């Protein structure tokens, strides 16, 4: 697979905290960096001196530039360039789902930039296809943006029974003048989903033995109610990341940091506390 060059334009970021270790947060598919705001503020503390957190909008999401072609190596390269421009010293990197695969790719390709890695509810494997997201993608494409007058009408016309999922997806809807557009590159992900089992988003770019393992400490946070990580994934995870420690959060599904923010914040606080 050919890695596309990193975009000249840096990724959009938000900053939380004024002192402490550098920590970067990477969101999942159709998310934005601000999805990690509650966790980042909890780590920074009332005085803002617990961490210096950077909440990254991944390529094709939020206010970051779009890609012509999807690639985890390309995403990781853009994250690396953005983080180095802020601070070239090593970072704690936290990633959920799509952001977790991007964070793993970053650690494997740019290990000197990652002091510690935290992966939230995703494994370094192919998930086969994007069937889990096809319904969401189709509904986003069906929403007649040219006819929508306001956000309440968009919510009424968007067919999704789960209010949390609906709110999560509609956070991507942005008004520009009298019109609306999706901040996420829906067309790119629709094209990837149409590839079925050849989906690049559902895949992972490396096989064990094909790249040097990342030798730094790794915290693997998984949801007990999630189906994204199974017991058999442990062997593959440790092949890439030998120093992995897994924490399974009871009662949490795939969006672990939303289902159990206090637990995730405390787990990350311990990671930060052990960072020089």
From TrEMBL:
InterPro entries: AB_hydrolase_1, AB_hydrolase_fold. Gene3D superfamilies: alpha/beta hydrolase. It comes from the Bacteria. GO terms for molecular function: hydrolase activity. Pfam families: Abhydrolase_1 (PF00561). Keywords: Hydrolase. Signal peptide: none annotated. Transmembrane segments: none annotated. Residues 22-261 form the AB hydrolase-1 domain. The keyword Hydrolase applies. Coiled coil: none annotated. PANTHER family: PROTEIN ABHD11 (PTHR46118:SF4). This is Alpha/beta hydrolase. It comes from Knoellia sinensis KCTC 19936.
